[in-house]
Design goal:
- With 352 residues, this protein is of the alpha/beta class.
- The protein folds into 2 domains: 271 residues, Luciferase-like domain (TIM Barrel, Alpha-Beta Barrel); 73 residues, no CATH class.
- The protein has 15 helices and 12 strands.
- Strands 1-2-3-5-8-9-10-12 form an 8-stranded parallel β-barrel, surrounded by 6 helices.
- Helix 8 packs across helix 10.
- The longest helix is centred in the last third of the chain and has 18 residues.
- It is globular and about 65 Å long.
């Protein structure tokens, strides 16, 4: 299992310089990859460009570039450019986001996300392969059939036509699609104890597409789990640091009818608690929503507590099929976050 660093994105109270310094340290410590996210604040492309210029070896991953934010051709251009400038270090992670961001921020209807993702990836791969782009689909027609548009081909040379493509997925159908058309899965709230059905869905997609080796269907497929890490001697205090993050996703990331993370918590056995968290969060009672997050849910999906406890539990992820553990260090300061990264590097073989 490789170590990655998930930078997330910065917002009020966080310094962008800390993100860059954390990435530079991860590079020096021998981490395999650094991932940047975007929602409706900092974008992932600019952060990764900056990180790429400040690092030498570490891979640069988008977790994720939002599908409704860019045309597939623009995403492919960006991927080819970042990959070329970084010397072949870019890893393209994509996601449909959710209805609130897609429709409220980008003005794109959140409809048929699986079909949209499949078509999007088809065009992206076509562009990266430097094919002349001609596509007639439900969401994109290239070139437009009733105008002066011309079928074009990417002009950039030297990039990898087969650069790794990842999908963020939560539900069973999306996981199956990920196994079918992607090279890796970007997972969130990954519980080693509840991962069997999720990996089975990915494997089903790989077998259906012919991408799976008969005796080792997940061989070559990268399972990237983003895991919050809180290094603290007091276990309850450690859990407190993650509660707002859990409440935001389970309670408020999406509408009441379409919250994929809430459904995931339900499938993990926290149906009653997930409903309460959502009720509180949508009512604006965010602190109460955070307090309602069960300790057990946090402990299953995060690494919390003293260093020896984290070291004893980190292997659960490798045993449960994770190939890249993308840690998200939680600490009040940048120096504290970097201390967490240094401690983790000592726990995972292959890093310094």
């Amino acid at each position: 299992m490789r170590l990655g660093l998930n930078l997330g994105y910065w917002g009020p109270g966080s310094a962008p310089t800390d993100l860059i310094e954390n990435a530079a340290l991860a590079d020096r410590l021998g981490f395999d990859s650094v991932w940047a996210a975007e929602a409706y604040g900092s974008d992932a492309v600019t952060v990764l460009s900056w990180v790429g210029a400040r690092t030498e070896r570490v891979k640069l991953g988008s977790a994720v570039l939002q599908i409704p934010a860019r045309t597939p051709a623009m995403t492919a251009m960006t991927a080819a450019t970042l990959d070329t400038l970084s010397g072949g270090r870019f890893q393209l992670g994509l996601g449909v986001s959710g209805p609130q961001v897609s429709e409220g921020w980008h003005g794109v209807r959140f409809e048929a996300p699986l079909a949209r993702t499949r078509e999007y990836v088809e065009v992206v791969r076509m562009v990266l392969a430097r094919q002349t782009v001609e596509h007639s689909g439900r969401f994109w027609s290239l070139p437009l059939p009733d105008g002066p548009g011309k079928a074009l081909r990417l002009t950039i040379r030297g990039h990898r036509a087969d650069l790794p493509l990842y999908l963020a997925a939560v539900g069973p159908k999306n996981l199956q699609l990920t196994g079918e058309i992607a090279d890796g899965w970007l997972a969130i709230f990954y519980s080693p104890e509840h991962s069997g059905d999720l990996l089975a869905a990915v494997e089903k997609g790989r077998r259906a597409s012919g991408r799976a080796e008969p005796t080792a269907p997940m061989s070559g497929f990268d399972v990237v789990a983003t895991v919050p890490v809180v290094l603290h001697d007091d276990l309850e205090r450690a859990a407190e640091a993650v509660r707002p993050y859990c409440a935001l996703y389970v309670g408020g990331m999406g509408s009441r009818e379409k919250n994929f993370y809430n459904r995931l918590a339900c499938r993990m056995g926290y149906e009653e608690q997930a409903a309460r968290i959502q009720d509180l969060f949508l009512a604006g009672r965010h602190r109460e929503a955070a307090a309602a997050v069960p300790f057990e849910f946090i402990d299953e999906t995060a690494l919390i507590g003293p260093a020896d406890r984290i070291a004893s539990r980190i292997g659960r992820y490798a045993d449960a099929g994770v190939t890249t553990l993308a840690v998200a260090p939680h600490a009040p300061t940048g120096e504290g976050q970097r201390a967490v990264l240094a401690a983790l590097a000592e726990m995972v073989p292959g890093t310094d």
